Each structure stands twice: as C-alpha cells, then as structure tokens.
Amino acid sequence: MTESLSQCCDALESAVELLSGTVSKLENQSNLSNQLTMSLLQPRRVFELIPEYDIQRAKLDLIEEVEPLVKSLSGKLSKSLVKLERERDTLQQTLELNSLRLNNQFSGEEMSDPDVSSDLVIMTSSTTEELDQLKKLKAQKAQLISSIQEIQSGEQG
C-alpha cells in the first residue's frame, strides 16, 4: 500500500512539474506575442511632401464649399438683426407711451374722456415710420384735449 501511495505522490509531483513547465512556456510565448503585437500596432509617422498645386486646389474647394453657407448664414443673421432692432424700437416706444400715461395718471391731470385713460397699448410688429406717426397722432390728440379743456374752463370762468 505504501508502494502505491508513493507512486501516486511521484505521479502528482511529475504532473506539477509538467504544469509549471507549461506555465513558464506560455508566459515566454505570450511575452513574445505581446512584443510582436506592440511593435505591429505602434504607429509609424510617415510624412509625404504634397505639391503646392494640391494645397491650393484643396483651399479653393474648401472656399467654394464654405462660402455659400457663410453667405446664407450672414443673410439670416442680418434679417434677424433687423427684426430684433424693430422689436426693440417697438418696445422702447411702448415704454415711452406707457410712462407718459403713468405720469399723466399720477400727476392728477385726469382727462375727462374715459376712453383716453383706458387706451391699451398693443405691441405689433410695426415699422418705425408707423410708430412715429402714431406718436405724432397721440401728441396731437393730447394737444386737442388740452385745448378743449382750456376752452371749457374759459367758458365757465
């Protein structure tokens, strides 16, 4: 029985030696493989001289491709800018009109016409000329109302 046990131990030792040899061989082979892989995958920079004609042609192609896009975007931008300026002018004039109304309301100069104090300012996309004309008409209306009030107070006094 001891003899079979010693044979088992010898067989086990030889199997362990065989496995350790195999592991070391695999490590060596994988190191070589890794080095080969690294050398193959490592980038190599290769520079070539390109003729000046090719460079100029590429620049022209790029300009031909980009210039229409830039013009289109520039046109859209200028249209948007004009629209925003018009909106800003409209808002500024609306602010002026509303501040005049507030000043008239709080200064005690209440107008006798109830419709005048309840005028609504409606913001629309008007041109600058239309807004200037509206401003002039409102100023003329205010002058006429004040002259009517003067005439009425002159008749009473």
Automatic annotation (TrEMBL):
The keyword Cell cycle applies. GO terms for cellular component: DASH complex; spindle microtubule. Residues 74-101 form a coiled coil. Keywords: Cell cycle, Cell division, Centromere, Chromosome, Chromosome partition, Coiled coil, Cytoplasm, Cytoskeleton, Kinetochore, Microtubule, Mitosis, Nucleus. This is DASH complex subunit SPC19. GO terms for biological process: attachment of spindle microtubules to kinetochore. Transmembrane segments: none annotated. The lineage of its organism: Eukaryota, Fungi, Dikarya, Ascomycota, Saccharomycotina. Pfam families: DASH_Spc19 (PF08287). It is found in: Chromosome, Centromere, Kinetochore; Cytoplasm, Cytoskeleton, Spindle; Nucleus. PANTHER family: DASH COMPLEX SUBUNIT SPC19. Its main location: nucleus. InterPro entries: DASH_Spc19. Component of the DASH complex consisting of ASK1, DAD1, DAD2, DAD3, DAD4, DAM1, DUO1, HSK3, SPC19 and SPC34, with a stoichiometry of one copy of each subunit per complex. Multiple DASH complexes oligomerize to form a ring that encircles spindle microtubules and organizes the rod-like NDC80 complexes of the outer kinetochore. DASH complex oligomerization strengthens microtubule attachments. On cytoplasmic microtubules, DASH complexes appear to form patches instead of rings. It comes from Lachancea thermotolerans (strain ATCC 56472 / CBS 6340 / NRRL Y-8284). The keyword Methyltransferase does not apply. Belongs to the DASH complex SPC19 family. It comes from the Eukaryota.
